[in-house]
Specification:
By secondary structure, the chain is an alpha/beta fold. It has a single domain, classed as Alkaline Phosphatase, subunit A (3-Layer(aba) Sandwich), CATH 3.40.720. Helix content is about 25%, strand content about 10%.
Amino acid sequence: MPRGLQKISMVKLFFPGWVLMAILGSPVFAAEKPNVLIILADDLGFSDLGCYGGEIQTPNLDNLSKHGLRFTQFHNTARCWPTRAALLTGYYAQQVRRDTLPGIKRDMRPNWARLLPDMLRPLGYRSYHSGKWHLDGKQLEAGFDHSYDLADQSRFFSPQLHYEDDQKLPPVEPDTDYYATTAIADHAIKCLREHAKEHADKPFFH
């Protein structure tokens, strides 16, 4: 097995940005830079996974939890796009204008609100994105090395707006074998396999 794939067992599940930066800066990881995998699933209940006591068997996710980091007191926002902003910036979504409050409207992310890939690149990380984006700007400009962006979040079978590496892809016609969940997973797997083959000496963030 390639060294890069072996290192996948070190992934950290559900890793918020501020925790990530704190741990990477600690003496424990001074000589070792762990691979980081964030899985943000829409409409997933707090006890749906097997590792949290759920009735549905989720062995692969349970294994990630066993060898990674599992939170027991972590709460995200009720909507997905503020949660993504918080995870990738380390700030509250309202601080980076990705949520609305009385007197504060949703707007462009401030220039000082850098994303994790931009901060991880000087540390030797390669970064990948698969799925929804919900942030302003383009992924590669934000520090990602590869990206698949499903901009048509509600069109699971025939998206008209989706991008790979910041380039628009052709619309998907109805009645094809496209399914958003499969497309996102396939892209993530492709990125990790490519990383293991071509960049096994570098840590990854995905």
